[in-house]
Amino acid sequence: MVKLYKLPIRIYYEDTDAGGIVYYANYLKFAERARTEFVRSLGFEQREDLESDDKFGFIVRRAELEYLKPSRLDDLIEISCEVEDVKGATVEACQIVSCNGEERVKIKVTLVYISLAKMRPQRVPEKMVEKLWEYKREVL
Amino acid sequence: MVKLYKLPIRIYYEDTDAGGIVYYANYLKFAERARTEFVRSLGFEQREDLESDDKFGFIVRRAELEYLKPSRLDDLIEISCEVEDVKGATVEACQIVSCNGEERVKIKVTLVYISLAKMRPQRVPEKMVEKLWEYKREVL
Amino acid sequence: MVKLYKLPIRIYYEDTDAGGIVYYANYLKFAERARTEFVRSLGFEQREDLESDDKFGFIVRRAELEYLKPSRLDDLIEISCEVEDVKGATVEACQIVSCNGEERVKIKVTLVYISLAKMRPQRVPEKMVEKLWEYKREVL
Amino acid sequence: MVKLYKLPIRIYYEDTDAGGIVYYANYLKFAERARTEFVRSLGFEQREDLESDDKFGFIVRRAELEYLKPSRLDDLIEISCEVEDVKGATVEACQIVSCNGEERVKIKVTLVYISLAKMRPQRVPEKMVEKLWEYKREVL
Hints:
Chain A has one domain (5-139): Hotdog Thioesterase (Thiol Ester Dehydrase, Chain A, Roll). In chain A, β4 (90-99) and β5 (102-115) form a beta hairpin. The N and C termini of chain A lie close together (7 Å). In chain A, strands 1, 2, 3, 4, 5 and 6 form a six-stranded antiparallel β-sheet that branches. The first copy, chain A, contains three helices and six strands. Chain A is an alpha+beta fold. The mean pLDDT of chain A is 93. Chains in contact: A-B, A-C, A-D, B-C, B-D, C-D. Chain A binds chain D through residues 18-21, 24-26, 28-29, 32, 50, 55, 57, 59-67, 70, 116, 119, and chain D through 18-21, 24-26, 28-29, 32, 50, 55, 57, 59-67, 70, 116, 119. β2 (56-67) of chain B pairs antiparallel with β2 (56-67) of chain C.
């Protein structure tokens, strides 16, 4: 039985463009909202990291988007967040945008946990790694 | 007893800027989300209008924003939507952004219902006007 | 003879929405681009302020937008920046968006120079005030 | 001798986030600006396509971004646009974001020319294909 984190997102005018569909860059915004809420659901707030002395945070090192079907104004899409791997400072995640069971966009991202002050990678905090694996075990 | 429509909105990285606070233009996005959800809660979907032959929709004719306090990453703000007047093609609304009871931004907008094809004002549909007043009466 | 600062801006897909016109919040982005380039043309870089120990910067205290005509994909608009007053920490500016001589949007903004660390108003640096008035005198 | 299309882009507050760097989704906006200006430099305006009866346009089918170095407020970046292949309805392009000779982001996009009304692929117009190859030959 799969327990996959999913965030529902409503499409507003701000998300669309003159072609009548969601502007392609905005899916990266949706993807980050889902990652943030997923990590928050595990008990982590990004702001604490950002306001710490050394300013920590995840940055995206790589992103891959496959656009399968367009989304439109008023659509209520869902975007999943599945962590595929965590190694050192790096997290690999897969995120699917869907609407009424139809796959719309597939996103793969590689995140790196860094000190924003030094722009240098840092091991993902042990507590977060544990929580991520714990969630994954429940999924499988 | 006041029944005021309010939409909760979470602040994500996409909403902030290098000053560490929510970028000032984004409150107009939040305001439109709240107006859209308010009108949806009354039973209206913008997309039907947009996809009709003549393409109808609200455009903003005037907006006034007073920025009282900044918002930051992870804040869970609320934004209200109160229609103050409806006359012909014009709707006046007042929207307050708040967080934990603290007022953050006050927004006043004047909307005009138009045919997007002709860019010409059209009376706000009677059914919507009725619903708006009905809601207002309940509020007072 | 008037010497009015103007920044040309091209309208891209990212700026438009499903209504086929520029999304209303984006004019505040254009307005800030014009203010930034105007101040840069006078010899000031915002980043220096932002990276100083105390992190300084302008925040917008008030904005008023009057939307007269819509803009569309590929339009080459112009946006002006005219400082109307500088007092203490406060700057009043008027900005007009136009295209081929047609006025599109009128924007009035009140800016406050603050310490971002303390979120407290600071006198606009004397050197900047001088440059602003100098520019204004040349205009009149 | 290489003649590579490059568009200079200034980084404004709107482009940055609370981490102090350019928000990752915005590079897709920059990429589209560069593609648009490149195609405009060859004599094509997207709006004509969009306003034609059948509403044509390019949509992105796939995008791949590799984030090498962050960009910051006030940076004057450059983004290139190099068409790698054109086949039927599909265009493959490579775009590099750089600043002072330092590579910041590498982007690969697959575009499909479609009828937006029917959301169906259409051969890229012959005139555009010719111009694209002509430009490429000059590059090599």
